[in-house]
Specification:
This protein has two domains: about 140 residues, NAD(P)-binding Rossmann-like Domain (Rossmann fold), CATH 3.40.50.720; about 180 residues, NAD(P)-binding Rossmann-like Domain (Rossmann fold, 3-Layer(aba) Sandwich). About 35% of the residues lie in helices and about 15% in strands. The chain contains twelve helices and 13 strands. Strand 11, helix 11 and strand 12 form a beta-alpha-beta unit. It starts with a strand and ends in a 9-residue tail after the last helix.
Length: about 325
């Protein structure tokens, strides 16, 4: 389905939404009036995919090519795609924080394409999902529910998390919210952060860890909350994973690339730790990925950010960034 507004006003620039998660269609539809008098709008309500179920880059480019502004969520821009769009597209809004994982920001800047992101829209949603992964590992509600539908009375022990030590690597908006939730659940908090928030540390009774290694060695649960950049890519290698004590739990709702390729799979194969993962490299996770065969890992398909409130926040920020560009302003500009 395609929704078009003011397309007869050819004197106006064109804003295109080239693909849309089903749950974002209505939030976008409600915000399209913001473009009145500023731009024509063409909104596609599907997610174009090729025969293998992956994003159809050629179709996405075809949709965006005529646009001055493209409002995107989850689109991976290759340099070739940017080059094709550069003659017409002047601004790309990206519905997420980790924009560098989806577009080469330096290349976009070289081509004169503004790139805008969205920030803090999903802090609570992602934090809650991190805790949900922890609960599934320790209390196994989902697993036991599935077994109850096929077995007469599948008894199994569970694990309490109150009194455990939650170790956080990174303390931005999401890490801060995880700390609040963990504190409310009676967990002790150990945090490593480049920029400690002393007021929050005092309020939540947080112990500052001198190094990342201290978090991995001392925490019962380690939750990753670092942005992905050149300094953090692969920051978690075999040596750090070896520091995890037997029975420890690793939660990753940040970026899979924080962990060196293959290192976590090797550590999990020993069978003495658990992991809860919502992020992978690549995505979608291939059907034959070894993580799928491990029974000590909980996998969810990168949905931590997809709550109703978070999706509405993404839409609002994308529309604000696009209309700001069209009126000569600047909002959430990263390049």
């Amino acid at each position: 389905m395609v929704i078009e507004i003011d397309m007869e006003r050819t004197e106006l620039p064109l804003a295109v939404i080239p693909s849309c998660f089903p749950s974002m269609v209505e939030p976008f539809r409600r915000r399209l009036d913001a473009f009145s008098g500023l731009a024509r709008v063409r909104m596609y309500t599907d997610m174009p995919a090729d025969a293998d179920g992956r994003a159809d880059d050629a179709e996405l480019v075809r949709r965006m090519e005529p646009a001055t502004v493209a409002l995107t969520t989850g689109v991976h821009f290759s340099d070739a795609m940017l080059a094709q769009l550069a003659p017409t597209t002047r601004c790309i809004t990206f519905g997420g924080t980790g924009v560098a994982n989806f577009v080469d920001v330096d290349e976009a800047r070289r081509l004169g394409i503004r790139v805008c992101n969205a920030v803090h829209y999903g802090d609570n949603a992602v934090a809650e999902h991190a805790i949900a992964l922890l609960f599934e590992i320790t209390h196994r509600a989902g697993t036991l529910n599935a077994r109850m539908h096929t077995e007469p009375w599948p008894g199994e022990d569970i694990t309490e998390i109150g009194g455990m030590t939650m170790g956080l690597v990174g303390f931005g908006g999401i890490g801060h919210r995880v700390a609040e939730l963990a504190h409310g659940l009676g967990m002790n908090l150990l945090v490593w952060a480049r920029h400690p928030d002393r007021d929050a540390y005092e309020r939540l009774g947080i112990q500052a860890a001198p190094t990342i290694d201290d978090v991995f060695a001392d925490a019962d649960v380690v939750s990753l909350h670092l942005a992905l950049n050149d300094a953090t890519r692969g920051i978690i290698g075999p040596e750090r994973l070896d520091l995890l004590k037997p029975g420890a739990i690793l939660i990753n709702t940040a970026r899979a690339e924080l962990i060196r390729p293959g290192a976590l799979e090797d550590r999990l194969r020993r069978g003495d730790i658990h992991a809860g993962l919502d992020v992978f490299a690549p995505e979608p996770l291939p059907a034959d990925d070894p993580l799928r065969d491990l029974d000590n890992v909980i996998l969810t398909p990168h949905v931590a950010w997809r709550s109703d409130r978070a999706l509405a926040g993404i839409v609002d920020q994308c529309v604000t960034a696009a209309t700001s560009y069209l009126t000569g302003g600047s909002y959430n500009v990263v390049a």
